[in-house]
Amino acid sequence: MNFHTRKWVRPTDLNPNSTLFGGRLLEWIDEEAALYTIVQLENKHIVTKFISEINFINAPRQGDIIEIGIEAVAFGRTSITLRCEVRNKLTREDILSIDKIIMVNLGEDGKPAEHGKTKIEYVKDRLSL
C-alpha cells in the first residue's frame, strides 16, 4: 500500500475528547480516494458510491502526523474498488482501516461510464519519453 498523503492534526480538527474528529478523517479519506481514482481512470468526473465498515483503531491527538494509504483492489466496468489504511507517521500505529471504497467513473452526462482500465497504472508509465 502506498501512503501518499500526510495530514497534521490541528486544534480545529479535534472533537470534544481532544482527539481527531472522525468526520474530518473521513473527509480526508474521501478526498484521497477521489484523487487516486482520478489519476488511475484519467477522468476528473468520478463519485464515491460506497464505503464499507469503518474500523477506528486508535485516535490521533493534536500534533500527530497521520498518513493515508490507498490501494486499488479491483476494477469494475465503470468502477474501481479501493482499500484504505491510516497510520501515525511517527509511531506507525494503526489508526483506521476500510476494506472497500467503491468509486464510479462518470461520463459527460453525469451517468456511470466504462473506463476501460483493468490494472493499476502509474503516471510515469503513461508518459512516452
Automatic annotation (TrEMBL):
One of its GO terms (biological process) is acyl-CoA metabolic process. Keywords: Hydrolase. Gene3D superfamilies: Hotdog Thioesterase. This is Acyl-CoA thioesterase. Pfam families: 4HBT. It comes from Roseivirga ehrenbergii (strain DSM 102268 / JCM 13514 / KCTC 12282 / NCIMB 14502 / KMM 6017). GO terms for molecular function: long-chain fatty acyl-CoA hydrolase activity. CDD domains: BFIT_BACH. PANTHER family: ACYL COENZYME A THIOESTER HYDROLASE, HOTDOG ACOT-TYPE DOMAIN-CONTAINING PROTEIN. PROSITE patterns: HOTDOG_ACOT (PS51770). Residues 1-109 form the HotDog ACOT-type domain. SUPFAM superfamilies: Thioesterase/thiol ester dehydrase-isomerase (SSF54637). GO terms for cellular component: cytosol. Belongs to the acyl coenzyme A hydrolase family. The keyword Hydrolase applies.
